[in-house]
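Build the 3D complex.
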Amino acid sequence: MILIIKNNHEKKQLDNLINWIKGLGLNIHLSEGENSTILGLVGDTSLVDIDLIRALDIVDGVKRIQEPYKKANRKFHPHDTILEVNGHKIGGNNFTLIAGPCSVESEEQIITIAKDVKAAGAHFLRGGAFKPRTSPYAFQGLRESGLELLLKAKTETGMAIVTEIMSANHIDLFKDVDIIQVGARNMQNFELLKALGRTDKPILLKRGLANTIEEWLMSAEYIMAEGNEQIILCERGIRTFEQYTRNTLDLSAIPLMKEITHLPIIVDPSHASGLSRLVAPLSLAAVGAGSDGLIIEVHNDPMRALCDGAQCIKPMQFKELVEKMDVMLPIVNKVRN
Amino acid sequence: MILIIKNNHEKKQLDNLINWIKGLGLNIHLSEGENSTILGLVGDTSLVDIDLIRALDIVDGVKRIQEPYKKANRKFHPHDTILEVNGHKIGGNNFTLIAGPCSVESEEQIITIAKDVKAAGAHFLRGGAFKPRTSPYAFQGLRESGLELLLKAKTETGMAIVTEIMSANHIDLFKDVDIIQVGARNMQNFELLKALGRTDKPILLKRGLANTIEEWLMSAEYIMAEGNEQIILCERGIRTFEQYTRNTLDLSAIPLMKEITHLPIIVDPSHASGLSRLVAPLSLAAVGAGSDGLIIEVHNDPMRALCDGAQCIKPMQFKELVEKMDVMLPIVNKVRN
Amino acid sequence: MILIIKNNHEKKQLDNLINWIKGLGLNIHLSEGENSTILGLVGDTSLVDIDLIRALDIVDGVKRIQEPYKKANRKFHPHDTILEVNGHKIGGNNFTLIAGPCSVESEEQIITIAKDVKAAGAHFLRGGAFKPRTSPYAFQGLRESGLELLLKAKTETGMAIVTEIMSANHIDLFKDVDIIQVGARNMQNFELLKALGRTDKPILLKRGLANTIEEWLMSAEYIMAEGNEQIILCERGIRTFEQYTRNTLDLSAIPLMKEITHLPIIVDPSHASGLSRLVAPLSLAAVGAGSDGLIIEVHNDPMRALCDGAQCIKPMQFKELVEKMDVMLPIVNKVRN
Amino acid sequence: MILIIKNNHEKKQLDNLINWIKGLGLNIHLSEGENSTILGLVGDTSLVDIDLIRALDIVDGVKRIQEPYKKANRKFHPHDTILEVNGHKIGGNNFTLIAGPCSVESEEQIITIAKDVKAAGAHFLRGGAFKPRTSPYAFQGLRESGLELLLKAKTETGMAIVTEIMSANHIDLFKDVDIIQVGARNMQNFELLKALGRTDKPILLKRGLANTIEEWLMSAEYIMAEGNEQIILCERGIRTFEQYTRNTLDLSAIPLMKEITHLPIIVDPSHASGLSRLVAPLSLAAVGAGSDGLIIEVHNDPMRALCDGAQCIKPMQFKELVEKMDVMLPIVNKVRN
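Done.
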């Protein structure tokens, strides 16, 4: 960490600051130039409150040199993390397909779709049981009974299950779920993250709609710091000034994330756009950007879907999309097993 | 709700859509023009999934006519909501001052600051016991024992307490807290909102860092829909491209919110800027914009503050600020009792 | 255009409004419901000042039904516009590659790169002569002599030239340029747009860094309204809260734009990210999203590049990238001629 | 400037980089730690291309220590710049009021409003002759004849004139204008800025709708670098995700700007919100934030205003607003002369 000290500082203020920093167990490298005095902090600066320092009267600026995330940082873990769930590998050069309806609606619905997406090439079945909706008056999911229907679909098809959790109170209900999803709105629900960090379940951690890449990795770090290092990151669009699409899918983040973290990262093209007819082009774009997989909403009757039907594609469209992706996978050095 | 239908639609598709809408219990007003066909939906459209309709092949656009929030809507509740907590009124022409440290650190600290801010004019004492921090390695608050220290300060000074909750699991711990704060990161933690809606505590609902005014009111609606209508809204800055300030304080939202909702709305100038030297000008700006109050971080030794010290002002600065505000209150038709 | 009138309006106010609207040559369709009164404006509403109406005391909201752009609107021009420049087609199922250095630096540099990118498959040569730089102290381009060097490269290689204009004063200097580029910062330099609308040159119109899709099409409309309908749109990243990448490449915009406008649209992956190692993945992503082409910065010695070297790839990397794209083009129904 | 070098760099690469930097005339301070190697660049780094360095293979990060603006920087010019125009002082502890209609419409209109706003306390008359409009089909201003009408109003009332320029071609037309305004859309029209830098007119430089504080000061620097240091900055709202207001007025920027630049800064509450009923609260907020003045749209008949009427207040409202401001000015240490 580098501190730029104001030119007109008093010696006593600077001495106080230096002593305070040393009190945190850090060494200091002082460089007094003509126009500026610079302090280099040497040691583990992850505990230093950068905002506090920035606000001190004699400080003109603070620059962080080391990333605040450790366990998620590729610097300290250079090889790709590869998870194995239900016999499928996630990460590395594996390409993972998760598909299914926005909400679980009925036994027939979820089993039919599960069979369809499995036949088309999906590895995992998604489906919402607990639904975070902006409006309290909107359908909130079948909740516990939705989980039961997902497990029936798993029994029927052998597909492992991915579904969203909304409260640490529900963790026991998720004991047979294969991958627990944390939605965008809960990305910084730190009490939930800590509780999930104490489970042994793989966690699909979606990016918050206005969270930076660094904050996203810090949320992964919350889970990892408690001992659970099985994390799959999921880009699902960020909020920008543009309102023509529901969110702006940040595909620039994909190759960047591959550089700075070893965790697998997949893309959700359905929530990003909110429009079913954009799902196919954005899926191909995500493959081109180097995504480790996709999570796609597929429904057999979009008109009747209880929520977010607008962003669902039909099983036949999903199948055609997978065929196009298969053409692309070799050029991005991925394999769909 | 207005649906604009594509020009080249097939009659059968339109008939299907109309029947589907009627099936939701709504009436339809059809208007066929030269360039466009328009459907007006008449009835309670709050249950219609606007995203689903937007994605239909024959639909060119959808426009909502009625706001999706009801209980928080001034249209159905034209008079200002005025809460009364510990003998102080909040809302209407009352100006409310909440002050205290970012984090509760010790009995001496919290009681000293409580006395100082009370003497300077504050009505309520704030202080963080449970702290949402971006990093799992940062100080997370004194938690339960922090709540106990706040209650000691209440006993000592008679000031009612405002403090943040981070999980529905903790509600019992908050039984003696006077106003429960929901932080920006939990604004869409819907399970928490529902649980708070079943309490009888006033809720201070902060705006999420990238949430729209409409989403904010929908989160208030979550609490109100469960029966608890004692809500104070709090603007604390939104996330924008500008990184020179930590957040951009959205003061334009204040006069707008006063038009569309009857709930009181206050401003947090400390978290907005993250810089103590911006607290005074932004406080005066908030008063000018018509805020119903302020929540300000005050600390007697910013250098030692365990978190967010950068944004704390000292008790003497708080006192001077209150004196300046008092000059302004008459021109915005407010009274600080 | 739909006007929602406040419930508590006075009849006289409404009559005044109706008369004023009729004075603009529009017809009115009045619908009085239980909870709201709605006015439908019928006729050419592109001249109505929507902001003025929104601000009237008795108006609760205004919704536009028709897009404000006409000549760029696919509704009135359903077939793809296909430009032909120097024997190459742009738009439709053609895939166009524009490549070259950020800045023209010397005769040797520009001719060498031109030959390299031509050999690798580029159709057009790009190169900056007039450079918009944030800092007045940064290199501003070779200006007139840069244009001369580009034309030498054209003579030498037969490649048509794409280069940026910064002022209507310079139009005469651009008389031998094949495609004139309008940069992001000048997207709403309306005096420049009007002047270019009076030329017969194809215009490459980049999206402004914080401009909506609608504003972008309105800027195309400025050029088209003056008579020049040869426009190529170029997405180059938008400004968001995320600062890890220089801009956020908005690939969701590509399939959307293909729906609403008939104009060709290409992508600039170099400026979007600002990092050469992101150029290849973002290029493949753009192809997947359905882009009609790419404009890529290529340099033979990035370390020595006078500006924006960070985002340049080398000719060999460009060649490898083109080979990968060629695998993808059939699945997006494009041909690189 | 601080460069963080990747741990796994080759010695030869680092030597090349060091030689290249020395070739730019800079000295280097090398610090090799256990986890990172850091290069401190000493000397005038304003010419170093930070983006180029950021993209080098061996560079992990770059941090700027010195601001890239010089002439606008308070560090090198600690005292407030105070302009004097037509006998009125702008900056320092002076509070400046600029008022008038959005567009000049007729001689009677502009003279009537000029008299009204002068009587209410305005120092300068504003009015648009050249109007930047998103749509080519919207009213574009009276242009040259609008300027003539403004000068008639000046003759009649003695008020100095503020009006917007849209092209360097028009500078001669503005020879009798007192303060030339550069609008938000032209903030990075660098050819225009350079041309204005060669005039001796005070320039009112509005912030671009998505431009950072740093870019804004760099645009001021463009004008100042050419010799014209008479600049007034004007905050007018930035573009954010929130669409309920047209723009988000960034009042946090005001006290920050007062710290980092010596130039006067005023606020435009009319364009920020786009709603006349928000003008008064946002004006009082701007005064509270420490603004050096306001530029406010005032019209005697908002319904008939040819553009942006929605954001105009009436002369009587302006008068009442000035009276309220006068109560506040002493607490922010300002005087309205």
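The mean pLDDT of chain C is 91.
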